[in-house]
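BUG-407 | component: ligand-complex export | severity: low

The export step for adenosine-5'-diphosphate jobs runs without errors, but we want the raw record kept on the ticket for reference. Input record follows.
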Amino acid sequence: MKILVQKFGGTSVSSRAMREHAINHIARAHEEGYAVVVVVSAMGRAGDPYATDTLLSLIPDEDKLTARDCDLLMSCGETISSVIFGAMLRARGFEVAVLSGAQAGIRTTSEFGDARIAEIDPARIKRELHSGQIVVVSGFQGLTVEGEITTLGRGGSDTTATALGVALDADYIDIFTDVDGIMTADPRIVDGAVRLDRVTYYEICNFAYQGAKVIHPRAVELAMQKNIPIRVRATGRTDLGTLVTSAPHQWEARHPQDRILTGVTHSANLTQVKVQHPLGRSGFQTQVFDAMAQAGISLDFFNVTPTEVVFTVPEGKADAAVSLLTQMGMIVATVPNVAKVAAVGAGIHGVPGVMARIVSALSAEEIEILQSADSNTTIWCLVHEADLIKAIRAIHHKFDLHSLGGM
Ligand code: ADP
Ligand code: ASP
Ligand code: MG
């Protein structure tokens, strides 16, 4: 049996008209002889009646929502969406089985709000597929062995889709969304962003971890384990979007020289924290890191020098970090409202002058670089949030990323 998993994101199921487009894709796959498993997200974006953020906004801050109940609440968005989608599919003449994450056999760990898929028992889905049903699964949710409903982290319907693709040994996993595919930058930020036709799991995993939210990085990691190709596609179009595989064979010869960068992305809402070495205090660096670890504050972008420890924390953790360090007698300064711009590309490694070009692009726009770091696939620059969009556009332009369209 040829199996295709097709996932439709929030905007792709937000209206009847969008759901019709989605159903056309399913109908085409069905005509091509695929057994189709459909994964749906909650309908729409913040403000739409049953979107995840709207459900969350039902509980005011002064009320007491537990993490467990929060998952129960959030999971309703995908449950509602799958039932509505299933009913429309049936009206188009298909035999349909609608399954919650739990009914689809998705077992998770018990971290509410950010659970991992521990295992999938695909027996029920297989049974339904064998009897000719199209199976519609509520994304983003699963069940622990204790019988608790969990969610998989924001954007987690992608993870449901690829995990099912792996469990069912699917031919392809289609991630349908509201842009044309994986682009060189968020097209809402950079006008000249272009679609990449082929990327490797490795490239896109880095890109997604650095903030490109077009696909969840964990979803990519899962598909990579079994080498199942992902296609990131626009619901409103019929082309095949961006193909994500392990081997970019036909353009490998041109890579990495021709594609130093895959794209530019960012993560925002950060605070930079600078801790000065108190004179005569030994072991200060260890004390800083231990204190943050014990308080459960995860740090990023750290630099350790003999006189200073510098790092970033998510905005919401900054006050806790500063008050803890101050109580320990440390001298602390912060720079709020900063963002990390990430230039990502497997081709960065070993290519001289990449950082020089980034610095020159940012300097030409008078953008202050507060900190920088690099790995063999990514160069990060910390900038003031006010400069963020300018910085992304400047790097995109400097590396002529608009010319990567069709690669
Ligand atoms: P869905 O609800 O379909 O899962 P998401 O909002 O999670 O959609 O992801 C799609 C969005 O990702 C796009 O609307 C786009 O603004 C954003 N995005 C960020 N970076 C990129 C990128 N490099 N390529 C494409 N889209 C991107
Ligand atoms: N509805 C969930 C969210 O908004 C999951 C998803 O859309 O992938 O995060
Ligand atoms: Mg998403």
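Assignee comment: Attached the raw record above. Residues 9, 155, 158 surround magnesium ion (ligand 3) (CB under 6 Å).
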